[in-house]
Amino acid sequence: MRPDQRATGDYADRMADTPPGGALPPPSAPAVPPPGSSTPRMPLRRLGWRRILALAAVVLLIAAGAVFMVFTLGESLGAEALLVGVVAAILPVPVLVSCFLWLDRYEPEPLKYLIFCFAWGAFVSTAISLLVNETGARLFKDWGLPAALTAVLVAPFIEELTKAAGPILLLIFRRREFSGITDALVYCGLSAIGFAMVENILYLGGYGYRTGVEEYGPATGAQQVIAIFIVRILLFGFAHPLFTSMTGVGLGVAARTADRRIRVLAPIAGLLLAMMLHGTWNLLPSLAVATGQPIIVLYGYIGVMVPIFFGMVGLAVWLRAWEGRLTERTLPDYVRAGWLTPPEVAALGSLGRRHAARTWARRVAGDGGLKAMRGYQFAATRLALLRDGMRRGLDRKPAERERTRREERELLDAIAAYRSFFVGRDPQAPVGVWDGQHYHLRFPDGSQRPVAAPDEPVVPIPVVLARPPAQPPPYGPPGWYGHRPAAPWPPGA
Predict the structure, then answer these.
(1) Would you state the pLDDT for residue 466?
(2) How many CB atoms sit inside 10 A of residue 69's CB?
(3) Can you tell me the distance from the alpha carbon of 477 to that of 14, in angstroms, rounded to the nearest whole number?
(4) Which of 75, 100, 374, 388 is found 20 to 30 A from 220 (Cα to Cα)?
(5) Which H or E run includes 127?
(6) Which residues 6+ apart lie within 8 Å of 25 measured at CB?
(7) How many CA atoms lie within 13 A of 422 on its CB side?
(8) Which residues on neighbouring strands pair with residue 129, listed in sequence order?
(9) Which pLDDT score is estimated for 269?
């Protein structure tokens, strides 16, 4: 478990060079919080007047889009058809949202940003797209061109652009909330789900229920709603999230690179790919109608969309596992400096080990220990992502580097506070000290001796962290990427 990259700058060399604690103490039970004490929380960012104004502007924009869409759909569909469309369109939303949140289990994104992306896609993107698509349809009609061209030439451009606009704003103003492609996929996916939900209201309530009722009565309307639900949601419900995920890949790449050209070109390339894929999807039914060959849609669905869909699913699953393995590649720097122990790093490497650690924390410290372990795992994952960003040289300005150093120290302090809730409470394990290379344990017979780290740890060992030397030989502080001897535990553990 050695870092596989070299530092791109010297500022990372100064990180975490002041570990907590004093000289190496004798092994003894560490102080633990009193029963009933509250679990520590991550530090909150202060709300300045600029942030308040920006937040108010975003809320007003989303609210205006919501009012516009409710008024437009209500006037177009009628109250009854609107209600039917809303109920039917909401049904798949929890399932789709859960799929994207499943990808985000290692380092869950703030709920407020998830809600923002969903609401942006549902109201702002749909409102702008509706106005532009209707304008395009009128222009094509005035020019004597088929209105179907709107779905091929206009809709893919404006819909993908507006769906991606919300996540792009997050990337510009909250870049630290983008830890990679996984986060970008989640943000873009939720925006697309919100857009698809409102669009489905129009199809299910208007083209389904209202049209059926006007022609043959409520029974026919209900049948058409079911038919559209099966085709549009059960079979093709992944379409909008799939299109926008292409943009998400580009945004994720841009968020984790220090190259300014890639930061600009990657999102543009992803957005163009999303537009082309969306346009191809809309072109299939137009070709089927023009040629009288409905099988064209089936060929396009099986030959193009299904392979791309499973390819994106495979990429998302791989990225999810990569995010877990990132802790094993970056956190050993803090192990050598004495901030963490080898078992703690190993316990973060997979969801199974994280679950085992939470189970252990609950057994030895109750519900408070479980809550603390969850916070500990979140903070440690954030620390790994922050460390990876240092290696990549994401922070170019001195102010950004200083903010990174401050955030690293806050995360390390939070990790220490969370650890205090479950360290030293397991009666089945000896209490000891980790000095960055060995454990110093006191055994029941009173003897004390150094012990190497176990080969396959699965839960944090309850030890006190000792303050290592300023330059602990033979490693050096985190960020030093020169020659090192073998890691203090097997790299494959």
Answers:
(1) 56
(2) 19
(3) 8
(4) 75
(5) helix 126-142
(6) 433, 464, 466
(7) 29
(8) none
(9) 96
Ordered DSSP codes for 183-244? HHHHHHHHHHHHHHHHHHHIIIIIIIIIHHHHHT-HHHHHHHHHHHIIIIIIITTTHHHHHH
Kind plus residue range of the DSSP H or E element containing 251: helix 239-255
Quote the pLDDT of residue 54: 79
At 95, the amino acid letter reads V
Full-model pTM: 0.80
Q: What is the pLDDT of residue 355?
A: 87
Q: Cα(340)–Cα(434) distance, rounded to whole angstroms? A: 8
User: Hey, what are 79's tokens?
Assistant: 């109250």
Whole-angstrom distance, CA of residue 400 vs CA of residue 385: 15
CA nearest to 426, candidates 347, 350, 335, 357: 357
The values of phi and psi at residue 186, to 5°, are: -65, -50
Read out DSSP for 5-74?
S--SSSGGGGTT-S-SS-S-PPS-PPP-PPTTPPPP-PPPPP--HHHHHHHHHHHHHHHHHHHHHHHHHH
Distance CA 451, CA 410 (A): 30
Q: Report residues of the chain scoring pLDDT below 70.
A: 1-48, 424-432, 436, 443-444, 453-493
Which tokens hold the place of 101? 């949140």
Which pLDDT value is given to residue 46? 61
What type of residue sits at position 366? G
* CB environment 74-86: b (16+ within 10 A), e (fewer): eeebbeebbebbb
Q: Which helix (H) or strand (E) holds 96?
A: helix 93-103
**Are 433 and 439 in contact, with CB atoms under 8 Å apart?**
yes
Bridge partners of residue 432, in order along the sequence: 441, 463
Helix, strand, coil percentages, rounded to 5, for the chain:
65, 5, 30
Q: Are 410 and 371 in contact (CB under 8 A)?
A: no
Q: Which of 4, 1, 7, 32 is nearest to 392 (CA)?
A: 7
